[in-house]
Design a protein that fits this description.
- The structure is a single chain.
- By secondary structure, this protein is of the alpha/beta class.
- Helix 7 links the parallel strand 6 and strand 7.
- Helix content is 40%, strand content 17%.
- It has a single domain, classed as Rossmann fold (3-Layer(aba) Sandwich).
- It has a seven-stranded parallel beta sheet with strand order 3-2-4-1-5-6-7, sandwiched between helices.
- The model has no long low-confidence stretch (mean pLDDT 94).
- Helix 2 packs across helix 8.
């Protein structure tokens, strides 16, 4: 006899994620779940995104880390509200954690909540948070073979951000092979080559995100 202990855990998480989604939708707030490995540039990408959107939208960030509040402090230093979640060892965020973080945010005064998940390309894929969209950030130095090694996270992504594009000339990164691998797994997700550090390509990525934030605002109860 085989007992799958993950089923009740994931079932409970899915229920809480649905509640989070309903809560966000009712407030007209769009939530973005940002997934990437450590060092891919999640926080830098979030800050580059917020820099282009903060005059248009009211933004807050939920930071997920195993320990420390380094990234939350970076975000706050730019004048953006941030809530830190320390998982204490867990390699992913869960819907219950997001629910408690939302309690600490003024949802009625927000349009966009960006969730920086724990740096990991495996564990977070199993846990719905109630987000409106999920993106994966891959940096050029990590290599073009990551979609082959971690197919599920790329298959589930609503968009893929290829960060540190300005370093392409330094690393042996086969962009055509990368795009082919992504297309095999996920034919619908757009790929945005960017350099969060220099700003290259960020506007195209932000335009995609803005469409979804606008849609959430129009569909929500918030005025």
């Amino acid at each position: 006899m085989e007992i799958d202990l993950s089923r009740p855990i994931l079932a409970r998480n899915d229920q809480l994620a649905s509640r989070n989604r309903e809560r966000l939708e009712a407030a007209g707030v769009f939530a973005l779940d940002v997934l990437a490995s450590p060092g891919a540039g999640k926080t830098t990408t979030i800050l580059a995104t917020a820099a282009l959107l903060r005059d248009r939208y009211r933004i807050a960030v939920i930071e997920g880390d195993i320990a420390s509040k380094v990234d939350a402090e970076k975000v706050k230093a730019h004048g953006i509200p941030a809530v830190q979640i320390n998982t204490g060892g867990a390699c992913h965020l869960e819907a219950d954690m997001i629910s408690r973080a939302l309690d600490a945010l003024p949802l009625a005064d927000l349009d966009l909540v960006i969730v920086e998940n724990v740096g990991n390309l495996v564990c977070p894929t199993e846990f719905d948070l109630g987000q409106g969209a999920r993106i994966v950030i891959l940096s050029v130095p990590e290599g073009d073979d990551k979609p082959l090694k971690y197919p599920q996270i790329f298959a589930l992504a609503d968009a893929i951000v290829l960060n540190k594009y300005d370093t392409m000339h330094v690393f042996d990164f086969d962009e055509a092979a990368f795009r082919d691998a992504v297309r095999h797994l996920n034919g619908g997700a757009p790929i945005f080559p960017i350099s969060a550090k220099t700003g290259e390509g960020v506007e195209a990525w932000v335009a995609w995100l803005s469409e979804r934030v606008d849609s959430a605002r129009d569909g929500g109860l918030q005025t």
